[in-house]
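Entry:
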Amino acid sequence: MAIAEAPVTRARADAAPALEVDGLTKRYGKLIAVDGISFSVPPGETFGLLGPNGAGKTTTLEMIEGLRTPDDGTIRLLGMDAVKQRRVVQQRIGVQLQSQTLWPELTVEETLKLFAAVFHRPVPVRGLMERFMLMEKRCSLVRALSGGQKQRLAVATALVNDPEIVFLDEPTTGLDPSARQSFWDLIGELQRDGKTVIVTTHYMEEAEVLCDRVAIMDRGQIKAMDTPRQLVRTLPFDNTVECSFATAVDAPVLEALPAVHEVKREDGAFFLFTDDVAATLAGLMEVRDAAGDRVKGLHVGTATLEDVFIALTGRRLGD
């Protein structure tokens, strides 16, 4: 899949950052879950933390949101120290957790009213239900909602205080393609409203579609950070050829193929990074494995964020 056009940035470049993180670190015994990361997000930007499960994305968000205390580093949200002024900051942000708890025996309307009661200046609950297409379900119990409806409700709870920054942690995990697309449309509304959105995801396409900028995380560190298009442009190749063989093939044989810049191996498949697909495929058709057989599986694609991650880490995003 070709990478989507980079979104038109909504950030205000001349404004003070909505979020500044410097040297953020979190340890659990010998495990360093977040390892001294730094980044800033201007107002109005949609910023993505992209990486596999266990990369440190959720821990990073939970420290920023005030749910975990960092071991080192500083966090400034809306110009305030997010650790020392946690309760003040939390009145001005919206949070949708990865493991959002919605009480199954409450109705949609009761759920929103419960969340609204936490804040000093909540917005009208009816307006939220209308915006998120939940009016017809306002008297329905949460346990009777579909997956997509529960997700819309979870995002609505994050907006009951009309926050300036919205945090969404793996918001589309478990949704079917139709519900995921509907959710992307909701994010588009937040962007048009000028909200600053911080989202974590392990879906490459989601980051490409939604985010102005992306930080690629792996094992607690930020490996690269830029717009999706610029990250792909850092690659020394334009395309990826994924291939597999029935038996062993020596990697140097593939590395010597025409136009191949680099070869990565993952779960028995080879990824050939090339800037001339035709030349690489012509050479590949002559390669035989240890049993004398030619290529068994073959897939050709335009370079994407998935390829950026593989090039940086040697692993797929889903690992």
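Confidence is low (pLDDT under 50) at residues 1-8.
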